[in-house]
Amino acid sequence: MAAQAPPFMAAPEVLIERLNRGVRKRNARWSFVRDQAFGDALTLRRFRLGNGLTVLTLVDRSAPTVSYHTWFRVGSRHERPGKTGLAHLFEHLMFGTTRNHPHGDFDRLMERAGAEANAATWTDWTCYYENAPRDALPLLIELEADRMSNLVLRVPQVNSEKEVVANERKLRVDDDVEGKALELLYDKAFRHHPYRWPTIGSMQDIRGFTVRDCQEFYRTHYAPSNATVVIAGDFSEHKALSLVQKRYGSISAAPAAKIRKSPKEPSQRAERVFQLSAPTPTEKLLVGYHAPAFSDPDTPALVIANDVLFGGLSSRLHRLFCLDEEIALSVRGSISPFIDPGLFEMWIFLREGKRTEDALALLDRGIAGVGSAGPSPLELEKAISQLELSFLHSMETAGGKAEQIGFYETVANDGAAVFERLAAYRNVTGDAVQRAVTKYLRPSRRTRVEILRNLS
């Protein structure tokens, strides 16, 4: 939907004419794609540089801050067996040495500017972000453009970060019961799709990465045409785009990455059951049902179902497991927000002396109740209200807005679709929840991991 720009924003055709005046290099010339309403008062604008870089701007004068996000369309799904964890390793390498800045300079300059900087990697994407006072925007643009094209990848840098990631894997997976169980779940629930391997990678693969592996990955995936920059907050659109043009316009338009299409995961026709012996004081149950992709029309109803089942102290399964039957300490559920179909994960943390078979029977009973009769009107209203509240919280800051825009742009191909998702939640009916539960939460579609006490 087109939007009426605020009076302080120049008309896009005027803005583009000013920016491109005297610019001869094709890579540095701007084109305007479109603008969209972002809520009732803001406008999301989409621009593209000649080298393929997409830039989304959201001018918001509500606070003197700015958020700068760079989303690359590369995650663990874009790796291959034997090279798992490379996307995550790169998240670490990107904070290192460039041809213009020595090691540690990035963090030092960010701290001096009063900026917060971090990054995240998952299955479908890698994101780098900074939240800072508005006057720091030129620095953010300069540093991000620099590490997109000038990263130094040599043996000392690669070996140092490999060791950091190996230690992270020990802490989060090898020495962590939940991390180990979750890795086992995805490995067994998926037979063909690359969602089956962990984002952090296997220890063997982490240890085996070479400088050449990293250089090839960088050239393939860290190109302007594979990235989206999101700028949100209190800034001059003309000045920001001029700076982006100056810093990124010299980066060549890399050839389109030859990314293999992920194989489609065949339908699971029978339950898969695995046991994990671990040093845990009580047994636990982890269940993963195959769930639709994030953009699938069924996903909003299933998200509502998750809230009905697991959303807080008044949720059905918390009351059933923790209050009525008193066999669990806590329960939780979540649906993976992936581009391709993922999993609806369910955790049951049992009390001492309680068994996983008892938990499974109770879980089936709780799910069957929603599948047979749907949620009550009060449960439905509460679930939608909680999702609305979560949405409002996510939009309170420039950083929150930029994160939502970047995620929806990368996963749903539309940075403004966050409002469409909110509308979809509001339109979910009890019948839709009932249908989604019946369709997706069937035993034949699930893989379960029984975490048993290791008494040795």
Task: State Rg.
Answer: 24 Å
Q: Could you tell me how far the N terminus lies from the C terminus, measured between alpha carbons in angstroms?
A: 62 Å
How many helix segments?
A: 16
CATH topology category name of the largest domain: Cytochrome Bc1 Complex, Chain A, domain 1
How many domains is the backbone divided into?
A: 2
Give the structural class.
alpha+beta
| H and E order | HEEEEHHEEHHHHHEHEEHHEEHHHHHE
Keywords summarizing the entry:
Cytochrome Bc1 Complex, Chain A, domain 1; 20% strand; 2 domains; five-stranded mixed beta sheet; 456 residues; alpha+beta; seven-stranded mixed beta sheet
Task: Provide a compact summary of the structure.
The protein has helices at 12-20, 86-93, 105-112, 137-149, 155-174, 177-189, 203-208, 211-221, 237-248, 299-310, 316-324, 356-373, 377-394, 398-412, 417-427, 430-440, and strands spanning 30-38, 42-49, 54-59, 65-72, 116-121, 126-133, 227-233, 272-278, 284-290, 328-335, 343-350, 446-453. The protein has 456 residues and is of the alpha+beta class.
